[in-house]
Fold this protein.
Amino acid sequence: MKLQKPKGTQDIFGKNAETLAQINALAAATFENYNFKQIETPTFENYELFSRSAGETSDIVTKEMYDFKDKGGRHLALRPEGTAPVVRAYLENKFYAPEVQKPVKFWYSGPMYRYERPQSGRLREFHQIGVEVFGAENPAVDAETIIMAADLFSTLGLSTLKIHLNSIGDSASRAAYRKALVDYLAPFESELSEDSQRRLIENPLRILDSKEKQDKIILENAPSVLDYLNERSKAHFDSVCEILDAAEIDYVIDSSMVRGLDYYTNTVFEIMSVIKGQELTVCGGGRYDKLVEYFDGPATPAFGFGMGLERLLMVLEMQDIDLTDEIGLHAYVAVLGDKANLEASKLVSALRVQGYSVDRDYLGRKLAAQYKSADAYHADLIITLGDDEVGNQCAKVKNSASREEREYSFDALYADFATIYEDLVMNHEDD
Ligand code: ATP
Ligand code: MG
Protein backbone atom coordinates (compact mmCIF):
# COMPACT_ATOMS: atom_id res chain seq x y z
CA MET A 1 0.00 0.00 0.00
CA LYS A 2 1.24 3.44 -0.89
CA LEU A 3 1.13 5.68 2.19
CA GLN A 4 0.09 8.79 0.38
CA LYS A 5 -2.94 11.03 0.63
CA PRO A 6 -5.43 10.83 -2.23
CA LYS A 7 -4.97 13.29 -5.10
CA GLY A 8 -6.51 16.69 -4.43
CA THR A 9 -6.62 16.31 -0.63
CA GLN A 10 -4.55 18.00 2.07
CA ASP A 11 -3.31 17.39 5.59
CA ILE A 12 -4.05 20.53 7.56
CA PHE A 13 -1.71 21.23 10.45
CA GLY A 14 0.51 23.89 11.98
CA LYS A 15 -0.18 27.48 10.98
CA ASN A 16 -2.91 26.56 8.46
CA ALA A 17 -4.82 24.62 11.12
CA GLU A 18 -4.54 27.53 13.55
CA THR A 19 -5.62 30.03 10.90
CA LEU A 20 -8.62 27.90 9.93
CA ALA A 21 -9.66 27.64 13.58
CA GLN A 22 -9.35 31.42 13.86
CA ILE A 23 -11.42 31.98 10.68
CA ASN A 24 -14.11 29.67 12.04
CA ALA A 25 -14.14 31.50 15.38
CA LEU A 26 -14.36 34.93 13.73
CA ALA A 27 -17.06 33.71 11.34
CA ALA A 28 -19.10 32.26 14.22
CA ALA A 29 -18.82 35.56 16.12
CA THR A 30 -19.74 37.63 13.06
CA PHE A 31 -22.70 35.45 12.11
CA GLU A 32 -23.98 35.47 15.69
CA ASN A 33 -24.16 39.27 15.49
CA TYR A 34 -26.56 38.80 12.60
CA ASN A 35 -28.59 36.22 14.59
CA PHE A 36 -27.56 33.18 12.54
CA LYS A 37 -27.59 29.74 14.20
CA GLN A 38 -25.23 26.90 13.40
CA ILE A 39 -26.33 23.75 11.60
CA GLU A 40 -24.36 20.61 10.76
CA THR A 41 -25.53 18.21 8.10
CA PRO A 42 -24.04 14.84 7.03
CA THR A 43 -21.05 14.78 4.70
CA PHE A 44 -22.95 12.40 2.41
CA GLU A 45 -26.50 12.50 1.16
CA ASN A 46 -28.66 10.73 -1.39
CA TYR A 47 -27.24 11.33 -4.86
CA GLU A 48 -30.55 12.71 -6.14
CA LEU A 49 -30.45 15.58 -3.64
CA PHE A 50 -27.56 17.07 -5.59
CA SER A 51 -28.39 15.85 -9.08
CA ARG A 52 -31.85 17.40 -8.82
CA SER A 53 -30.89 20.68 -7.15
CA ALA A 54 -27.68 21.52 -8.97
CA GLY A 55 -29.22 20.55 -12.30
CA GLU A 56 -28.49 17.43 -14.33
CA THR A 57 -26.37 19.45 -16.77
CA SER A 58 -24.25 21.34 -14.23
CA ASP A 59 -20.50 20.67 -13.97
CA ILE A 60 -21.02 19.55 -10.41
CA VAL A 61 -23.33 16.75 -11.48
CA THR A 62 -21.85 15.76 -14.84
CA LYS A 63 -18.19 15.80 -13.85
CA GLU A 64 -17.48 16.53 -10.23
CA MET A 65 -19.67 14.31 -8.08
CA TYR A 66 -18.07 11.82 -5.70
CA ASP A 67 -20.92 9.34 -5.86
CA PHE A 68 -20.96 5.70 -4.86
CA LYS A 69 -23.21 2.77 -4.01
CA ASP A 70 -23.04 1.70 -0.36
CA LYS A 71 -23.27 -1.92 0.80
CA GLY A 72 -27.04 -1.63 0.88
CA GLY A 73 -27.11 -0.52 -2.76
CA ARG A 74 -28.04 3.09 -1.97
CA HIS A 75 -26.77 5.69 -4.45
CA LEU A 76 -25.02 8.28 -2.27
CA ALA A 77 -22.73 11.24 -2.88
CA LEU A 78 -20.19 13.10 -0.79
CA ARG A 79 -21.64 16.60 -0.61
CA PRO A 80 -20.21 18.95 -3.26
CA GLU A 81 -21.83 22.00 -1.67
CA GLY A 82 -23.81 23.00 1.39
CA THR A 83 -27.07 24.54 0.18
CA ALA A 84 -28.97 21.43 -0.92
CA PRO A 85 -28.26 19.59 2.38
CA VAL A 86 -29.46 22.58 4.42
CA VAL A 87 -32.61 22.80 2.28
CA ARG A 88 -33.14 19.08 2.88
CA ALA A 89 -32.70 19.61 6.64
CA TYR A 90 -35.08 22.61 6.52
CA LEU A 91 -37.79 20.42 5.02
CA GLU A 92 -37.11 17.25 6.98
CA ASN A 93 -37.13 19.10 10.32
CA LYS A 94 -40.17 21.19 9.31
CA PHE A 95 -38.48 24.52 9.96
CA TYR A 96 -41.22 25.99 7.76
CA ALA A 97 -43.75 25.39 10.58
CA PRO A 98 -45.47 28.58 11.80
CA GLU A 99 -44.02 28.28 15.32
CA VAL A 100 -40.46 28.55 13.97
CA GLN A 101 -39.26 32.19 13.86
CA LYS A 102 -38.87 33.52 10.33
CA PRO A 103 -36.66 34.09 8.56
CA VAL A 104 -34.72 30.96 9.53
CA LYS A 105 -31.02 31.80 9.45
CA PHE A 106 -28.35 29.08 9.43
CA TRP A 107 -24.59 28.96 9.05
CA TYR A 108 -22.37 25.92 8.59
CA SER A 109 -18.74 25.01 8.20
CA GLY A 110 -17.31 21.77 6.88
CA PRO A 111 -15.64 19.77 4.13
CA MET A 112 -17.01 19.54 0.57
CA TYR A 113 -16.00 17.12 -2.18
CA ARG A 114 -15.66 17.63 -5.91
CA TYR A 115 -13.90 15.43 -8.43
CA GLU A 116 -11.99 18.26 -10.11
CA ARG A 117 -8.65 18.44 -11.85
CA PRO A 118 -6.46 19.42 -8.88
CA GLN A 119 -4.61 22.70 -9.34
CA SER A 120 -3.90 25.85 -7.38
CA GLY A 121 -7.12 26.78 -5.54
CA ARG A 122 -8.92 23.66 -6.73
CA LEU A 123 -9.00 20.64 -4.45
CA ARG A 124 -11.06 17.45 -4.31
CA GLU A 125 -11.67 17.86 -0.60
CA PHE A 126 -11.98 21.48 0.46
CA HIS A 127 -13.74 23.43 3.19
CA GLN A 128 -16.55 25.91 3.05
CA ILE A 129 -18.26 28.22 5.46
CA GLY A 130 -21.74 29.07 4.28
CA VAL A 131 -25.02 30.64 5.33
CA GLU A 132 -28.65 30.21 4.27
CA VAL A 133 -31.68 32.40 5.03
CA PHE A 134 -35.18 30.97 4.51
CA GLY A 135 -38.53 32.65 4.39
CA ALA A 136 -38.02 36.30 3.38
CA GLU A 137 -38.26 37.83 -0.06
CA ASN A 138 -37.19 41.25 1.20
CA PRO A 139 -34.19 42.58 -0.76
CA ALA A 140 -32.80 43.71 2.60
CA VAL A 141 -32.00 40.02 3.22
CA ASP A 142 -29.89 39.90 0.04
CA ALA A 143 -28.10 43.13 0.91
CA GLU A 144 -27.54 42.40 4.60
CA THR A 145 -26.26 38.89 3.88
CA ILE A 146 -23.77 40.33 1.39
CA ILE A 147 -22.86 42.96 3.99
CA MET A 148 -22.31 40.14 6.49
CA ALA A 149 -19.85 38.46 4.08
CA ALA A 150 -18.06 41.79 3.61
CA ASP A 151 -18.10 42.29 7.38
CA LEU A 152 -16.37 38.94 7.89
CA PHE A 153 -13.80 39.72 5.20
CA SER A 154 -12.94 43.04 6.80
CA THR A 155 -12.77 41.39 10.26
CA LEU A 156 -10.20 39.08 8.70
CA GLY A 157 -8.28 42.15 7.52
CA LEU A 158 -9.36 41.76 3.88
CA SER A 159 -11.11 44.96 2.94
CA THR A 160 -9.90 45.26 -0.64
CA LEU A 161 -11.66 42.30 -2.25
CA LYS A 162 -14.15 43.21 -4.96
CA ILE A 163 -17.79 42.23 -4.74
CA HIS A 164 -19.34 41.40 -8.12
CA LEU A 165 -23.10 41.76 -8.17
CA ASN A 166 -25.69 40.77 -10.75
CA SER A 167 -29.31 39.79 -11.12
CA ILE A 168 -30.38 36.91 -13.32
CA GLY A 169 -34.03 37.85 -12.80
CA ASP A 170 -37.02 35.71 -11.98
CA SER A 171 -38.06 32.87 -14.29
CA ALA A 172 -40.11 35.14 -16.58
CA SER A 173 -37.20 37.57 -17.03
CA ARG A 174 -34.83 34.71 -17.57
CA ALA A 175 -36.95 33.13 -20.30
CA ALA A 176 -36.83 36.40 -22.26
CA TYR A 177 -33.10 36.69 -21.74
CA ARG A 178 -32.46 33.08 -22.63
CA LYS A 179 -34.06 33.64 -26.01
CA ALA A 180 -32.00 36.78 -26.66
CA LEU A 181 -28.80 34.99 -25.65
CA VAL A 182 -29.48 31.99 -27.89
CA ASP A 183 -30.29 34.32 -30.81
CA TYR A 184 -26.97 36.06 -30.25
CA LEU A 185 -24.89 32.89 -29.80
CA ALA A 186 -26.43 30.71 -32.53
CA PRO A 187 -24.37 32.25 -35.39
CA PHE A 188 -21.17 31.55 -33.39
CA GLU A 189 -22.11 27.97 -32.58
CA SER A 190 -19.17 26.29 -34.35
CA GLU A 191 -16.68 28.66 -32.67
CA LEU A 192 -17.88 27.85 -29.14
CA SER A 193 -16.12 25.28 -26.97
CA GLU A 194 -17.51 21.78 -27.10
CA ASP A 195 -19.07 22.16 -23.64
CA SER A 196 -20.71 25.42 -24.61
CA GLN A 197 -22.11 23.96 -27.84
CA ARG A 198 -23.85 21.39 -25.70
CA ARG A 199 -24.97 24.08 -23.23
CA LEU A 200 -26.47 26.11 -26.09
CA ILE A 201 -29.20 23.50 -26.25
CA GLU A 202 -29.32 22.30 -22.66
CA ASN A 203 -28.68 25.41 -20.58
CA PRO A 204 -27.48 28.45 -22.53
CA LEU A 205 -27.15 30.74 -19.48
CA ARG A 206 -24.37 28.54 -18.20
CA ILE A 207 -22.25 29.51 -21.22
CA LEU A 208 -21.78 32.87 -19.45
CA ASP A 209 -19.98 30.95 -16.69
CA SER A 210 -17.52 29.34 -19.14
CA LYS A 211 -13.84 29.61 -18.33
CA GLU A 212 -12.81 28.82 -21.96
CA LYS A 213 -11.06 31.67 -23.74
CA GLN A 214 -12.84 31.12 -27.08
CA ASP A 215 -16.21 31.41 -25.30
CA LYS A 216 -15.15 34.49 -23.35
CA ILE A 217 -14.27 36.36 -26.57
CA ILE A 218 -17.66 35.64 -28.13
CA LEU A 219 -19.42 36.57 -24.88
CA GLU A 220 -17.90 40.04 -24.82
CA ASN A 221 -20.70 41.43 -26.99
CA ALA A 222 -23.50 39.22 -25.70
CA PRO A 223 -26.72 40.90 -24.56
CA SER A 224 -26.86 41.83 -20.86
CA VAL A 225 -29.27 40.01 -18.59
CA LEU A 226 -29.94 43.29 -16.78
CA ASP A 227 -31.66 44.64 -19.92
CA TYR A 228 -34.18 41.80 -19.72
CA LEU A 229 -35.29 42.09 -16.09
CA ASN A 230 -39.03 42.62 -15.72
CA GLU A 231 -40.29 45.39 -13.44
CA ARG A 232 -40.48 43.22 -10.36
CA SER A 233 -36.97 41.82 -10.74
CA LYS A 234 -35.58 45.23 -11.55
CA ALA A 235 -37.18 46.79 -8.47
CA HIS A 236 -35.70 44.01 -6.34
CA PHE A 237 -32.23 44.52 -7.77
CA ASP A 238 -32.41 48.33 -7.42
CA SER A 239 -33.39 47.93 -3.81
CA VAL A 240 -30.45 45.58 -3.09
CA CYS A 241 -28.09 48.14 -4.64
CA GLU A 242 -29.66 50.98 -2.66
CA ILE A 243 -29.12 49.20 0.68
CA LEU A 244 -25.53 48.27 -0.23
CA ASP A 245 -24.90 51.90 -1.22
CA ALA A 246 -26.33 53.13 2.07
CA ALA A 247 -23.96 50.78 3.89
CA GLU A 248 -21.09 52.17 1.78
CA ILE A 249 -20.24 48.72 0.47
CA ASP A 250 -18.03 48.75 -2.61
CA TYR A 251 -19.26 46.53 -5.42
CA VAL A 252 -19.27 46.31 -9.20
CA ILE A 253 -22.27 45.31 -11.26
CA ASP A 254 -21.10 42.46 -13.46
CA SER A 255 -23.86 41.43 -15.86
CA SER A 256 -21.77 38.56 -17.25
CA MET A 257 -21.65 36.80 -13.89
CA VAL A 258 -24.06 33.90 -13.45
CA ARG A 259 -23.56 31.30 -10.78
CA GLY A 260 -22.63 27.71 -11.54
CA LEU A 261 -25.82 26.20 -10.15
CA ASP A 262 -29.27 26.05 -11.65
CA TYR A 263 -31.25 27.10 -8.64
CA TYR A 264 -30.49 30.81 -8.42
CA THR A 265 -33.07 33.57 -9.02
CA ASN A 266 -32.61 37.34 -9.03
CA THR A 267 -29.57 38.43 -6.99
CA VAL A 268 -26.24 36.62 -7.46
CA PHE A 269 -22.88 37.76 -6.16
CA GLU A 270 -19.25 36.71 -5.95
CA ILE A 271 -16.30 38.02 -4.02
CA MET A 272 -13.19 37.64 -6.14
CA SER A 273 -9.47 37.87 -5.74
CA VAL A 274 -6.52 37.42 -8.07
CA ILE A 275 -4.51 34.49 -6.69
CA LYS A 276 -1.25 33.58 -8.38
CA GLY A 277 -2.26 35.39 -11.54
CA GLN A 278 -5.60 33.63 -11.70
CA GLU A 279 -8.93 35.27 -10.87
CA LEU A 280 -10.60 33.03 -8.33
CA THR A 281 -13.86 33.34 -6.46
CA VAL A 282 -13.48 33.21 -2.70
CA CYS A 283 -17.17 33.59 -1.88
CA GLY A 284 -20.26 33.14 -4.01
CA GLY A 285 -23.97 33.07 -3.46
CA GLY A 286 -27.36 34.48 -4.21
CA ARG A 287 -31.09 34.13 -4.02
CA TYR A 288 -32.82 30.82 -4.70
CA ASP A 289 -36.54 31.40 -4.30
CA LYS A 290 -37.62 28.22 -6.10
CA LEU A 291 -35.45 25.50 -4.58
CA VAL A 292 -37.50 24.64 -1.48
CA GLU A 293 -40.65 24.42 -3.60
CA TYR A 294 -38.76 22.35 -6.15
CA PHE A 295 -38.21 19.76 -3.39
CA ASP A 296 -41.98 19.72 -2.76
CA GLY A 297 -41.76 22.09 0.21
CA PRO A 298 -43.93 25.17 0.73
CA ALA A 299 -43.00 28.18 -1.43
CA THR A 300 -40.05 29.62 0.48
CA PRO A 301 -37.80 32.41 -0.76
CA ALA A 302 -34.19 31.94 0.26
CA PHE A 303 -30.72 33.49 0.07
CA GLY A 304 -27.26 32.13 0.85
CA PHE A 305 -23.56 32.05 0.15
CA GLY A 306 -20.58 29.73 0.46
CA MET A 307 -16.95 30.67 0.87
CA GLY A 308 -13.93 28.50 0.16
CA LEU A 309 -11.58 28.39 3.14
CA GLU A 310 -8.51 27.13 1.26
CA ARG A 311 -8.85 30.03 -1.17
CA LEU A 312 -9.32 32.37 1.78
CA LEU A 313 -6.05 31.00 3.25
CA MET A 314 -4.30 31.77 -0.04
CA VAL A 315 -5.59 35.34 -0.05
CA LEU A 316 -4.58 35.89 3.58
CA GLU A 317 -1.11 34.57 2.85
CA MET A 318 -0.79 36.69 -0.27
CA GLN A 319 -1.71 39.80 1.69
CA ASP A 320 0.67 38.88 4.51
CA ILE A 321 -2.13 38.69 7.05
CA ASP A 322 -1.37 36.55 10.08
CA LEU A 323 -4.39 35.65 12.20
CA THR A 324 -2.45 33.40 14.56
CA ASP A 325 -0.63 34.57 17.65
CA GLU A 326 2.57 32.88 18.70
CA ILE A 327 0.74 31.13 21.51
CA GLY A 328 3.25 29.68 23.97
CA LEU A 329 3.00 27.45 27.02
CA HIS A 330 2.62 29.00 30.46
CA ALA A 331 5.16 26.58 31.84
CA TYR A 332 7.48 23.72 30.91
CA VAL A 333 8.56 21.19 33.51
CA ALA A 334 12.11 19.84 33.11
CA VAL A 335 12.50 16.42 34.71
CA LEU A 336 15.60 14.58 35.98
CA GLY A 337 15.36 11.13 37.56
CA ASP A 338 12.74 8.51 38.40
CA LYS A 339 11.26 10.11 41.51
CA ALA A 340 10.92 13.37 39.62
CA ASN A 341 9.08 11.55 36.81
CA LEU A 342 6.14 10.75 39.10
CA GLU A 343 6.20 14.18 40.73
CA ALA A 344 6.24 15.86 37.30
CA SER A 345 3.05 14.05 36.27
CA LYS A 346 1.34 15.17 39.48
CA LEU A 347 2.57 18.74 39.03
CA VAL A 348 1.57 19.17 35.35
CA SER A 349 -1.90 17.75 36.14
CA ALA A 350 -2.32 20.18 39.04
CA LEU A 351 -1.24 23.16 36.92
CA ARG A 352 -3.40 22.14 33.95
CA VAL A 353 -6.42 21.86 36.24
CA GLN A 354 -5.69 25.40 37.46
CA GLY A 355 -6.07 26.48 33.83
CA TYR A 356 -2.45 26.78 32.72
CA SER A 357 -1.02 25.33 29.53
CA VAL A 358 1.82 23.10 30.61
CA ASP A 359 4.04 20.43 29.12
CA ARG A 360 7.00 18.41 30.42
CA ASP A 361 9.81 16.14 29.32
CA TYR A 362 8.95 12.47 28.78
CA LEU A 363 12.17 11.31 27.18
CA GLY A 364 14.67 11.43 30.05
CA ARG A 365 16.93 13.79 28.12
CA LYS A 366 19.81 15.96 29.31
CA LEU A 367 18.69 19.26 30.85
CA ALA A 368 20.08 21.30 27.93
CA ALA A 369 17.84 19.40 25.48
CA GLN A 370 14.83 19.90 27.76
CA TYR A 371 15.48 23.64 27.98
CA LYS A 372 15.58 23.72 24.20
CA SER A 373 12.09 22.21 24.15
CA ALA A 374 10.90 24.88 26.61
CA ASP A 375 12.25 27.45 24.20
CA ALA A 376 10.63 25.85 21.16
CA TYR A 377 7.26 25.84 22.94
CA HIS A 378 7.69 29.51 23.96
CA ALA A 379 7.20 28.59 27.62
CA ASP A 380 6.96 31.62 29.92
CA LEU A 381 8.26 29.66 32.92
CA ILE A 382 10.56 26.68 33.35
CA ILE A 383 10.17 24.52 36.46
CA THR A 384 13.06 22.12 37.08
CA LEU A 385 12.36 18.93 39.05
CA GLY A 386 15.13 16.58 40.16
CA ASP A 387 15.40 14.06 43.01
CA ASP A 388 16.70 16.86 45.33
CA GLU A 389 13.62 18.97 44.65
CA VAL A 390 11.36 16.01 45.39
CA GLY A 391 13.28 15.45 48.65
CA ASN A 392 12.98 19.12 49.70
CA GLN A 393 9.42 19.48 48.40
CA CYS A 394 10.32 22.70 46.62
CA ALA A 395 11.44 23.66 43.11
CA LYS A 396 13.08 26.51 41.21
CA VAL A 397 10.86 28.39 38.78
CA LYS A 398 12.57 30.50 36.13
CA ASN A 399 11.22 33.19 33.85
CA SER A 400 12.67 32.08 30.52
CA ALA A 401 12.85 35.60 29.12
CA SER A 402 14.27 37.58 32.07
CA ARG A 403 16.13 34.56 33.55
CA GLU A 404 14.86 35.60 36.98
CA GLU A 405 14.58 32.52 39.19
CA ARG A 406 12.76 31.92 42.49
CA GLU A 407 12.19 28.91 44.67
CA TYR A 408 8.67 27.83 45.67
CA SER A 409 7.36 25.06 47.88
CA PHE A 410 5.35 22.30 46.22
CA ASP A 411 2.43 23.44 48.38
CA ALA A 412 2.55 26.86 46.76
CA LEU A 413 2.95 25.38 43.25
CA TYR A 414 0.05 22.98 43.71
CA ALA A 415 -2.34 25.30 45.50
CA ASP A 416 -1.84 28.69 43.92
CA PHE A 417 0.13 28.80 40.70
CA ALA A 418 -1.64 32.05 39.79
CA THR A 419 0.34 34.01 42.37
CA ILE A 420 3.62 32.50 41.19
CA TYR A 421 2.80 33.20 37.54
CA GLU A 422 1.86 36.75 38.47
CA ASP A 423 5.08 37.28 40.49
CA LEU A 424 7.38 36.03 37.80
CA VAL A 425 5.60 36.89 34.54
CA MET A 426 2.78 39.41 34.86
CA ASN A 427 4.67 41.91 37.01
CA HIS A 428 7.56 41.95 34.55
CA GLU A 429 5.71 42.27 31.24
CA ASP A 430 7.12 45.77 30.60
CA ASP A 431 10.72 44.98 31.63
P1 ATP B 1 -15.41 27.98 -9.54
O1 ATP B 1 -16.15 28.81 -10.53
O2 ATP B 1 -14.11 28.59 -9.09
O3 ATP B 1 -15.29 26.54 -9.94
P2 ATP B 1 -17.79 27.38 -8.15
O4 ATP B 1 -18.77 28.28 -8.76
O5 ATP B 1 -17.74 25.97 -8.57
O6 ATP B 1 -16.32 28.00 -8.23
P3 ATP B 1 -19.19 27.41 -5.67
O7 ATP B 1 -19.96 26.18 -6.01
O8 ATP B 1 -19.88 28.70 -5.68
O9 ATP B 1 -17.89 27.48 -6.57
O10 ATP B 1 -18.47 27.20 -4.25
C1 ATP B 1 -18.26 28.30 -3.35
C2 ATP B 1 -16.81 28.50 -3.08
O11 ATP B 1 -16.15 27.29 -2.74
C3 ATP B 1 -16.01 28.99 -4.27
O12 ATP B 1 -16.15 30.36 -4.41
C4 ATP B 1 -14.60 28.62 -3.88
O13 ATP B 1 -14.05 29.55 -2.97
C5 ATP B 1 -14.80 27.33 -3.18
N1 ATP B 1 -14.52 26.19 -4.08
C6 ATP B 1 -15.31 25.66 -5.04
N2 ATP B 1 -14.73 24.60 -5.62
C7 ATP B 1 -13.53 24.44 -5.00
C8 ATP B 1 -12.46 23.50 -5.11
N3 ATP B 1 -12.50 22.50 -5.98
N4 ATP B 1 -11.37 23.65 -4.31
C9 ATP B 1 -11.31 24.65 -3.41
N5 ATP B 1 -12.29 25.56 -3.23
C10 ATP B 1 -13.39 25.46 -4.01
MG1 MG C 1 -16.52 24.90 -9.89
About this structure: The chain has a mean pLDDT of 93.
